[in-house]
């Protein structure tokens, strides 16, 4: 009987401890022209609309992740990837998107499979907004 009561007590107490451990983030790609790190007006508008659609979720962010990517065939791909990541983060700052933590990294993109038309290109930046736990 004591084990049953202890089990019920543990189950009742466990959900709050694990409620935020698997909060999914929302991700959006910003696409760039080949050999360019400038964000087009269309991409900037799409990013702003996405942030507006996020609504209240963006006001309480646990983190922001920005990954700048460049295709290996681009001129100076590592530098372009870094510029894309920095420019994407600058736009988020301009739009007032803030969080407790921010990660900004850059990589030269290596496709998982060659010549797959469904494979995303390396000419992009991936922006992920990670919501904060609702109990914070």
What are the main properties of this structure?
single chain; alpha+beta; 60s Ribosomal Protein L30, Chain: A; globular
Characterization of the model:
There is one protein chain. The protein is α+β, with helices and mostly antiparallel strands and 136 residues long. The chain has a single domain, classed as 60s Ribosomal Protein L30, Chain: A, CATH 3.30.1330.60. It has three helices and four strands. It has helices at 2-18, 41-54, 77-94, and strands at 26-31, 61-71, 101-109, 124-131. The chain has a four-stranded mixed sheet with strand order 1-4-2-3. The longest helix is centred in the middle third of the chain and has 18 residues, at 77-94. The protein is globular, with a radius of gyration of 20 Å. Residues 1-19 have low confidence and may be disordered.
Write the layout of secondary structure elements.
Layout: H1 2-18, E1 26-31, H2 41-54, E2 61-71, H3 77-94, E3 101-109, E4 124-131
In short:
With 136 residues, the protein is an alpha+beta fold. It has helices at residues 2-18, 41-54, 77-94, and strands at 26-31, 61-71, 101-109, 124-131.
* Strand arrangement in the largest pleated sheet: 1-4-2-3
Mean pLDDT: 81
What is the count of structural domains? 1
Portion in beta strands? 25-35%
| Elements, N to C (H/E) | HEHEHEE
CATH topology: 60s Ribosomal Protein L30, Chain: A
Q: Helix amount, in percent?
A: 25-40%
Q: Strand count, sense and closure of the main sheet?
A: 4 strands, mixed
Gyration radius (Cα, Å) is 20 Å
Low-confidence stretches: 1-19
Please identify, by name, the CATH architecture. Answer: 2-Layer Sandwich
Give the structural class: alpha+beta
Tally of individual helices: 3
Distance between the termini: 36 Å
CATH class categorisation: Alpha Beta
Give the full name of the CATH homologous superfamily.
OmpA-like domain
How many beta-strand runs?
4
Indicate the overall shape. globular
